[in-house]
Amino acid sequence: MDIPKPDGPDTSITPRMLISCWTMYGAATLIIVLRIIAKLKINLKVGLDDILLTLALLLGIANFAFDNAAVRYGLGRHFFYLTPFERVNSMKWEFVGEPVGILSPMFGRLSFMAYLLPFTGTSKPRKHFLYFLAAQHAVVNLLTIVLILVQCKHLATLWDPMGVPGKCWNPQVQADYGYFQGATNSLTDIVLTIFPAMIIWNLQLAKHLKIGLSIVLGLSSFAMIASIIRTKLTAQIADRSDFTWNTVDFIIWCTVENCTVMITSSVPTLRSLFVRPKPATGWTYEMQHQYPKGSNGTSKSSGTTKSSSNTRKSKVVSKAYAGAESSGENIVQSQKGVPRDAIVKETQFEVAY
User: Fold this and answer.
1) Positions of the region Disordered (predicted)?
2) Residue 131 lies in a domain
């Protein structure tokens, strides 16, 4: 393969990549830690959505660690100025990190779908729709990984065509499927923006609360924007003549998309860190009457024997509860009467007359 000489000098554009990407992963890590703290604060168990999101974070960091290894061998510099050893190793670490980088945002979106599942309530069509959305999202992204791994007879030919000669597909095949994958991911983000609003709007809540929850749960629109930009840059994968220079912007926007998915899916869970619980969210009364029985004036009520003479007694039971949180998740998951994880106080008064 002839490597054209670039117009510019032998410079590196990796500093902006390292600064922007590590900043994004630092912010995503902080938000996910706060997410776990927020759940523990209100005594909620760590669920499937938290596990998937943590896995997405670890895979994302691993992916960028591979890119950092590629930086050591010339990622961010023009391919023309690299030695044969640097060319092989820089491309190797980029290709090795690609499958991990695809899995990370996939698990991030699946995490948000798992978070939305309780909001569907008893509606089977909504549940089935979420299951379908999760299945198609997983299939499309896993197939992307398969195409990366099988595009050459020998995988090492991808980064070392001279040392490991072999037949490979046209790089445009991967780029074309990359457009399809990016388009479906963007469409998934659109659905994850609209779907929560449709659920929230059908709940019996105050209008301002519906609007607020719809906005918070609809932050996937930011991930959609990042996904569209990343998809537009997919063509850089097919251009192998200056691979180490051209793919830097693609890596940056992959990171932005990945971290935006993780951050926006975590924001709705952070409310309990900033809002104090509101007490006395409900109360009930229960009346029990006692009447004298027999010549000795003995009466029985609720298994308790009392002596009285021509006496009526009424027992008033007041029950009050204070909810542990007021987040959208608790609003949807609460049962009739006392909400889950509420603190219940019962006071009994006995009046004789």
Assistant:
1) 289-337
2) yes
Burial of 196 (0-12, 13-18, 19+ CB in 10 A): buried
Please report whether residue 139 resides in a domain: yes
Q: Which residue has the tokens 């105050």?
A: 206
Q: Based on the structure, what is the number of domains in the chain?
A: 2
How far apart are alpha carbons 46 and 34 in whole angstroms?
13
How far apart (Å, rounded) are the C-alpha atoms in residues 56 and 52? Answer: 6
**267 and 296 both lie in a single domain:** no
Q: Tell me the pTM.
A: 0.75
Q: What is the pLDDT of residues 100-119, one digit of tens each?
A: 999 999 999 999 999 999 88
Q: Are residues 348 and 222 in the same domain?
A: no
- β partners of residue 288: 315
Tokens 């909400």 sit at which residue?
A: 339
Q: Nearest Cα to 192, choosing from 267, 110, 128, 259?
A: 110
What does DSSP say about strands 298-301 and 343-352: parallel, antiparallel, or unpaired? unpaired
Enclosing domain of residue 163: 14-273
Nearest to 112 by CA among 95, 96, 140, 133: 133
Within a 10 A sphere around the Cβ of 126, how many other Cβ atoms?
A: 18
**Chain position carrying tokens 């729709």:** 129
Report d(CA 121, CA 248) in Å as an integer: 44
In contact, 279 and 263? CB cutoff 8 Å: no
Rounded CA gap, 36 and 41, in Å?
9
Tokens of 233: 């840059």
What pLDDT was estimated at residue 310?
A: 52
First to last CA, the chain: 103
pLDDT tens figures, 164-186: 999 999 988 988 999 999 999 99
State the Cα–Cα distance between residues 120 and 130, nearest whole angstrom: 9
**Together in a domain, 304 and 267:** no
Residue 6 included in any domain:
no
Which CATH number does the domain housing residue 230 bear?
1.20.1070
Residue count of the chain, please give it: 353
